[in-house]
Amino acid sequence: MSKFRLIVIFWISFCALNAQNAEWIYIEKQDTSLVGIRTFEIANGNLIVLGTEHNFVEGSTGIPFDGFFNYGPSTYLFDKNNEVYQMQLLPIFKGGYEQILAKENSLFIPFNFYIGFEECHHPFMGVNALSYDLGLYELKLHEDRIIAVDSTHYPHRDTAYCGILGLVHSSLCKDYIYTFRHWFNKDQALFIDKINSVTKELEETKIIPRIINPVEIFYHCENERIVIGGASEQAYDLNDYSFGYSLECRNLTGEIFWRKDSLSFFNLMIYDKNNDVYLLIEKNISNYDHNSDIRKIDKDGNLVFYKEYFEKFVDLIPFENYTLALENANFLQIIHLLNESGEVIRTVEFETERRVYGNSITITSNNDVIITGTIYDDFDGPSYCCFEEAGPNPIYLLKIPISDIITINEIDKSQIKLYPNPVNDFINIDIPYVKLDDIELTIDVYDLKGNLIISGQKIKNKFNTISLNEVPSGIYFINLYENSNLIKREKVIKV
Question: Which residues touch 415 (CB under 8 Å, ≥6 apart)?
Fold first, then answer.
């Protein structure tokens, strides 16, 4: 095992509103440059970082081609004691590995497996077609260590579908792994593979012909619907992307439920717990000037909001009724807090002495926000890639309590829900995420004459119920207080 080290720094940074506590974690490896892709939460609260690494060459650009060796994806497992174990996963000719699927103590990484050229007709490459197959790598978490178990290949070997079958997405649905592969051909097909996660056997492959050219795919396990985003058929056939991008929802047999056309090119498609879709669009104004658009579409294909921002966002993650947007700015990591309408209601900056570039943002089950990225100490330019000059690039994690980003003072009051209204016996009060340990929320209920009917009932949870069973029919006012300060008042009708 190559030598590597973990450096943990507790950093205090300041923004306009509050002092923020953050934990910076650096992962460095001797003579090797690392790129942090994303952090995943697995069993027992352990975190696993998926990245890539390649041998450092002084003064190089670090791009893993033209003789760069020992390149491939790696994982870095660490726990609450900051014990880290690293292993090289896949050699250079395997790719498409940006997802880890976790099931109990098993970790699955689907990937593209390059097998060379196939001697069959391909509309773009003639009789010799570059060929990918599907692979599945399995790891086991054993006593806080990851152990390689198996690497299984599923070759298609069907000359009717020769050439590139590129992995776009994978999902773990109970005991089955679903992979979605794009057949790069004029006819455009989507291969849907159903793999038994216990036996690792490929049980079924479905083919949906004539789809849009997919950039991103999301699969709903519960209702078996697929959301596909990418270039429209016209844009792909005519090689004219002025037709724009499309977004469509299908089932596993290919039936279309809804479709949106003439969308802007998007860099990222994510989804939330309600199966709503967010499209992140990056606009390049110049080499040094970028901005972003976000389009949110609900599960039925309806537009929720479309917002333009001056900032360049690189990743998004929904949380409760909010969205966290990640921005890079050389020696800063910036998180923007968006409300349900897509409006920025707070911006928090975290400063470092090193030049950082965050690739992704994750939220753990204990409400820690984790930014995963790479440090480029020696590169000064309009964009970031793999540049290195004086030394290897390390991975960094920035770990932030969500309560340092979302507090009661920044709650959009419109997101506090009181329902039903009119009410019979009980009224529900839903509070967006707050850190209730540091504040006191209470409810008072008044009648039309100003008489206090219910006094000082404490709000302790996100979801709360107030009984009006003993209250006569009529009109009442419910006051919500934070530390004795009125933050919301609403009229309700008791029937």
Answer: 321, 339, 340, 432
Identical topology for domains 4-407 and 413-494: no
CA max distance for the chain: 87
The class (CATH top level) of 413-494 is: mainly beta
Neighbours of 97 (CB within 10 A): 21
Residue 285 burial class via C-beta count within 10 angstroms: exposed 0-12, middle 13-18, buried 19 and up? exposed
Domain ranges for the chain: 4-407, 413-494
DSSP code of residue 302: -
Of 96-110, 226-240, 341-355, least confident by mean pLDDT is: 226-240
The tens digit of pLDDT for each residue in 89-142 reads: 554 344 556 688 888 888 888 887 777 666 655 555 455 566 777 888 888 877
CATH 3.50.50.60 fits 4-407, yes or no: no
Question: pLDDT tens for residues 170-204?
Answer: 999 989 999 998 887 666 788 999 999 999 999 99
Q: How confident is the model at residue 385 (pLDDT cuts 50, 70, 90)?
A: very low
Residue with tokens 């090689």: 239
109, 49 contact by CB (below 8 A): no
Q: DSSP string covering 138-206, please?
A: EEEEETTEEEEEEEEEE----GGG-S-EEEEEEEEETTEEEEEEEE-STT-EEEEEEEETTT--EEEEE
CA separation for the pair 321, 313 (Å, rounded)? 19
What's the pTM? Answer: 0.76
**3-class DSSP state for residue 408?**
helix
Tell me 44's DSSP state. Answer: G
Task: Retrieve residue 344's tokens.
Answer: 């920025």
Task: Tokens 């159903």: give the residue.
Answer: 194
